[in-house]
Amino acid sequence: MISTAAGKPYPLGSSIEILQDNSGNKKVGWNFALFSSCAESVKLCLFFDGQELPLEMYQSGAFWHLWVGELPYGTQYGFRITGQDNTLFNPQKLMLDPYAKAVIGKPDLSCIEKQQWFLLNDPRDNAHLAPKGVLVDNQFDWQGDKPLATPWADTIIYELHVKGFTQLRQDLPEAIRGTYAGLAHPTMITYLKELGISAVEILPINYHLDEPHLQEKGLVNYWGYSPLAMFAVETAYWSGQTGTTPLSEFKTMVRALHQAGIEVILDVVFNHSVESEKHFPTFSQRGIDDRAYYWQNAQGEYLNATGCGNTLNLANDITRRWVLDCLIYWVEECHIDGFRFDLATVLGRETPAFNPQARLFAEIAQEPRLQQCKFIAEPWDIGEGGYQVGNFPHYFAEWNDRFRDDLCRFWLRKSGELGGFAQRFAGSSEIYQKEDRKPHHSVNFITAHDGFTLCDLTSYNEKHNLANGEQNRDGRNENYSYNHGIEGVENLPEEVKYQRFLSCGGLLASLLLANGTPMLLAGDEFGHSQKGNNNAYCQDNEITWLNWQKFQPHFVEMTKQLIALRKQIPSLQRDQWWTEENVQWRNAQGQLMSVADWHNPHSKAMQIQLDEDWLLLINAKAELQTFLLPDGKWEVVYSGAFVQMQGNLWAVNDLAFVCCTKKGNDY
């Protein structure tokens, strides 16, 4: 016989709660709490061996709550909600807890008939098909693990996908390839350490669903930007090994990375949910409190600043509370070091225009449990006023797409914009040098999951996205790429291979030796190609999985050298804006750059002297360049090109990035 009591309206979700009766006896149970401001009644539905037990919940204003005793871990549950407006509520549809710590069930939405089971206007009971929350055991031996708190100046980010990173690693046990356990394997951690990485930024591992339009085509949302349950770990990346759960295996991965000195940053999606448009399948928030969770106009139509059918309303108190509780959960329960926020402009939408002083930003800043976290914004969405690069609060670093575009134009399109190159290389001060911000606020990247890989950036002039089933209309059209005369990566002349190598070297060196926080896309360091697909979000196959069999060691060694160099140059370790005291910008003749030099589109070459003892030679044109070096005896410590030296007169071949140091410098 199950015992019940009123319980408490907070914390929301399911949590272990000990009750004490009048006799002093203590009972261990679970407290369930749900917010629904328009509901007239809510039933907590527990499932045991396929049998459903509905229990009426108590109401305290807009909160519904119930305590239930002696429920075992693994118990499945959901909610049935009744309200006056039958377009918003349907008690025949089981709703998933927005705070569920684990979920079971991924609905089949591959055709209209199957999707109808999840429509609010459908009269049938769908409990046998609906995803359900699961009561989980959070206990875990962290073995003294603590936050690493790596300084931003020492941070080098490596963006990866849990499955794609190890799915094709033949030197790993087959059972753990493509899983949390695979990423935690000593082989992979050793690889990351030898590369010089300080943090992995992991594409979404929250429980997600594949959208109906993808299921109809037999595709999946590989990237995971279709969230259903933001507190729950995605089960598809669990190895299923005996004695583990998806959550425990994920925690083991975090612990192993921390033991190696590598932080874990989660890519999180608080801008939309998988429920998409109003007439689409409903699983959770829309059927619980549609008006609270989603931005809508006066006619009740969804505002779509995300391109995904809906936009979460983070001006609403309960939705903001959900975001904060979720961040705290990942930090406290899973020891996460930071977050990268997808389409982060939505976080500050309040009217719903963007407000850089939005309440959510203030609440995050005031939350003591989040003080040591790294916060990174993707500072745009597709709504009105969505491009907000440089406008996020001071504790946010930001993806800097200006860095990506200007550097690609400089090296691949040979723009000759020396001023633009220098501005980005020095940390984009015109964007970020305000309100005591530092260079680390610019997260510099050339490539990311969204777009071409580095190999494809130098191998394709056009995107090749037909496999996505959208007639090549999807994906970014302007990539500032250059195929060096041949489209693709097969059957290449040696000269084309060499030119591509030089271009990749220039881009990688510019990324890893620039002021700011560098972010490297997994696989770029060894030449991974996605066959020209620049929007491979739905390709869970060998297009996206890193092909370790085509590992190019010369690329890896180049990347290692550049990261090691970065750690030696003082001006790249201080997280300070460069001034005349530590940097001199020189022309090819060794003289300080004049106004005419900066505006000469034909020179495409310059020298950058850092901390007196370090010299970078930049030649971005397709011909030999002669440099007269500043006074001193210089030696090459990194070169992605051929260098011929005669005293301080050096000839450097095309597309070259050369790093030198003064002889006798303790390198």
Textual characterization of the structure:
This protein is α/β, with parallel strands linked by helices and 667 residues long. Helix content is 21%, strand content 21%. Strands 11-12-15-16-17-18-19-20 form an 8-stranded parallel beta barrel. Strand 4 and strand 5 form a beta hairpin. The relative contact order is 0.08. The model has no long low-confidence stretch (mean pLDDT 96).
User: Unreliable runs, pLDDT <50, ≥5 residues?
Assistant: none
DSSP strand count = 28
Give the N-terminus to C-terminus distance in angstroms: 73 Å
Strand percent estimate: 15-25%
Please, what is the average pLDDT? 96
* Major sheet details: 8 strands, parallel, barrel
Helix content: 10-25%
Q: Going across the major beta sheet, what is the strand order?
A: 11-12-15-16-17-18-19-20
Gist?
Helix content is 21%, strand content 21%.
